[in-house]
TrEMBL record:
Gene3D superfamilies noted in UniProt: HAD superfamily/HAD-like, Putative phosphatase, domain 2
Name this polypeptide is given: Phosphatase
PANTHER family named in the record: 2-DEOXYGLUCOSE-6-PHOSPHATE PHOSPHATASE 2, PSEUDOURIDINE-5'-PHOSPHATASE
Signal peptide: none
Species in which this protein is naturally found: Candidatus Curtissbacteria bacterium RIFCSPHIGHO2_12_41_11
Family in the record: Belongs to the HAD-like hydrolase superfamily. CbbY/CbbZ/Gph/YieH family.
A matching Pfam family: HAD_2
GO molecular function (one): metal ion binding
Amino acid sequence: MIKAIIYDLDDLMVNSNPLHTEASDKVLQKYGVSQKKLPEHIRAKFIGMRVSDILKNLIDYFQLGVNLEDLREKRSAIFLELVRKKLQVMPGLFQSLKLFRQNKFKIALASSGTKKYINIVLEKLKVADYFDVIVSGDDVKRGKPDPETYLIAVKKLGIRPSQAVVLEDATNGIAAAKAAGCFCIAVKNSHTPKQDLTKADLILDSLTDLSLRHLRSISKY
């Protein structure tokens, strides 16, 4: 029986990929590089990963002589300012949260983002009260596609992984959810590099389409 819904954040709840790209390019431009110079398949793999892990990859790929923590702090300041000014919500988010709350599901947020970023988003959208549990990228040793993020979430929720449905948009996130033993519904996003959603139990075009019928169809709850 499904008892909880676990939301990813980036590009599932909010359209953040354009802001992530803008922040990274602004901090990288002083080194004469841009994410646009990366092959599409590499950029696609970044979706769903922690920023610190992405920056490690960028430093290695472009062979930058830069301190990871310094780069992360500079990028974070730029990104959070963009979030405060420009972040947009994805269609169907508020509708889906109300649906699950009205039907007595526990709700968690399990994101690769930092606690600071998550708190800014929840305050901006005024949805913090919907979430019983929040897991951030700061809480894990290994980011997605490792299942640790979702294993921590179900443990905090006090349920078995098979009692949770994860909502995801990224190949890395889907892999993490399934490796954790959860059901997974993938939601398409046209704003990110193409993702492989085929490992999900169900694929939807938007959160707007989500209904309790979909939970029943994948879990028989």
